[in-house]
Amino acid sequence: MQQIRIGTLVNGPDAIRNLPQIIPHGFESFSLTFWQTTNNEDLVEMAKRVKEIIAEKDIVISSLGIFGNPLTGERGNADTLASWERLIDHAQDFGTDLISGFTGRMPGSIEQSLPRYKEVFGELAKRAEDRGVKIAFENCDMGGTWENGDWNIAHNPTAWEMMFNVLPAENIGLQWEPCHQMVSLIDPIPQLRKWVGKIFNVHGKDATIAWDIVHEYGIHGPKQFVWHRTPGFGDTNWTDIISILRQNGYNGSIDIEGFHDPVYCGEWEMTGQVHALNYLKNCRGGNFIPNPK
User: Fold this and answer.
1) For a Cys staple, 155 with which of 44, 141, 160, 286, CB 3.0–4.6 Å?
2) How far apart are CA 88 and CA 203, in angstroms?
3) What are the CA-CA distances from residue 220 to residues 68, 216, 217 (Å)?
4) Alpha-carbon dihedral sign for residues 175, 177, 181, 183
5) Sign of torsion, CA 5 6 10 16?
6) Hey, which residues does 254 pair with through a beta bridge?
7) Which of 278, 193, 197, 181 is closest to 236 using CA atoms?
């Protein structure tokens, strides 16, 4: 059984500066992310310098992420589709076989986005397959509903069924986290058991649900009822998550998605992330210990 690595997300353009500062804390993987565009980044040079930083360390680049709307090219997302192509082409330079991000979305309902989704990601899936690369969609709603949204159709399990039906590519799957389901009051554990075979990467992000507020005020009242949390501070039992992943042969990583926790934020950000790192390592049983011979 392969060890599940525990890592964190790092902004791609800041990776050369930030990686040497946070590697000593014990992170085992890094997901390098870009917001809407890779800009004019020299990805070959970036990959070379990243590999030099992690050389001779037991660290991997688990994925590259591009988060924007590749379906429309609007609202500041004009370069997102081209960035998907660039990252697919340069994935192996970074030593990874996974590109993640949002599906994008057309105006209107999820059903109305499916034809354009099939067109765009049909081509990207072929491009990725030719290079031995997989594609994973984060299960984030970005404030969208079934009927309307600007960013991502892959935020609901019914949508996943529709997406995988219209485009049944083996190299397309999910970048899953419990938080994005909990904010919709979906129990993540039975969902994980059902979809684990399609999960290529896990984001380490949790949530706290104030059920007393839900019961008294509902979810459309003036009081906030759910908060994104760093693992170790939320409601999820990550020992259960890791056990389910292991029972189903998961060989990816869990990469902490920081900068969302309402308590461990600002100057306390890295304190929260290192707590999550150590908490998740404990949830997997600590480090591997060989049996006596």
Assistant:
1) 141
2) 20
3) 28, 11, 8
4) negative
5) negative
6) 6, 202
7) 181
pLDDT in tens, 187-235: 999 999 999 999 999 999 999 999 999 999 999 999 999 999 999 999 9
DSSP state at residue 186: -
- As beta bridge partners, residue 253 has 5
Name which of 140, 25, 165, 38 is nearest 94 in CA terms. Answer: 38
Q: Quick check: helix, strand or coil at residue 156?
A: coil
Written out in words, the top-level CATH class of the domain with range 5-204+235-259 is: alpha beta
Residue from 213, 110, 225, 128 nearest 166 by CA? 110
Reported as a single tens digit per residue, the pLDDT across 64-75 is 999 999 999 766
What's residue 75's pLDDT? 60
pLDDT in the model for residue 149: 87
Query: What burial class does residue 160 get, using C-beta atoms within 10 Å of its C-beta: 0-12 exposed, 13-18 middle, 19+ buried?
Result: buried
- Give the model confidence (pLDDT) of 94-105 as tens digits: 999 999 999 999
pLDDT tens readout for residues 162-194? 999 999 999 999 999 999 999 999 999 999 999
**CB neighbour burial string for 85-105, b if at least 16 within 10 angstroms, e if fewer:** bbbbbbbebbebbbbbbbbbb
Rounded to the nearest integer, the mean pLDDT of the chain is 96
pLDDT given for residue 76 in this prediction: 60
